[in-house]
From TrEMBL:
<protein>
    <submittedName>
        <fullName>Uncharacterized protein</fullName>
    </submittedName>
</protein>
Length: 55
């Protein structure tokens, strides 16, 4: 097992823990997906604004 394998195992483990915690708190995975999509949209908007400012 190398570092990459260990990281993958760790990420899967933390992901499962996150889902369990979210379920206990009443959140759903869809809520997390929506938040991540919103963050991605904000990143895209900021990138576009920087491009326009640089032109």
């Amino acid at each position: 097992m190398d570092t990459k394998d260990l990281l993958n195992d760790s990420s899967i483990h933390h992901g499962r823990n996150l889902v369990c915690l979210m379920n206990r708190k009443g959140f759903k995975v869809e809520d997390l997906e929506k938040a991540l999509q919103l963050s991605q949209k904000q990143v895209e908007e900021l990138t576009e604004m920087k491009k326009e400012a640089g032109e």
